[in-house]
Write a structure and sequence with these properties.
mainly alpha; two-stranded antiparallel sheet; elongated
């Protein structure tokens, strides 16, 4: 937590100082023309506003482009998640069915695991002959 705060300060502080220096050094107004043919749509803005607005618009447009390009991966992840949940539900139902169908094997004397003797398991070989 403390390391994260220090890292944030170390990164954000120089960037903030740089942006403030950019704004102070570029206060003179520039004409921003939005209609190159008639020139009717124009605005007089300080240069730093134009630069920072361009930066913000570029970051937003880049983020939207990346989000749109990764749509197929998000769709595949959702599909894989649904399939995994379906498979887990099927495994749970099969385990429940197996535990209901499994024969109860009596324990050996003293509580040890395993059948009591040969009579605990039916011998189907005699019936085959």
């Amino acid at each position: 937590m403390l390391l994260r705060r220090i890292l944030t300060i170390v990164l954000i502080l120089p960037v903030s100082i740089g942006l403030i220096m950019l704004a102070v050094a570029n206060r003179h107004p520039v004409t921003l023309v939005l209609d190159p043919f008639a020139g009717a749509l124009s605005a007089e803005l300080p240069l730093f506003v134009v630069v920072l607005a361009s930066l913000v618009i570029g970051v937003v447009l880049g983020g939207v482009a990346v989000w749109l390009r990764q749509g197929r991966y998000r769709r595949a992840a959702r599909s894989a998640g649904r399939e995994a949940r379906r498979a887990n539900a099927q495994v749970d139902s099969l385990r429940a069915a197996m535990s209901e169908r499994a024969p109860r094997v009596p324990l050996a004397p003293g509580g040890a695991m395993g059948p009591i003797g040969p009579a605990a398991l039916p011998d189907h070989r005699r019936n085959a002959a």
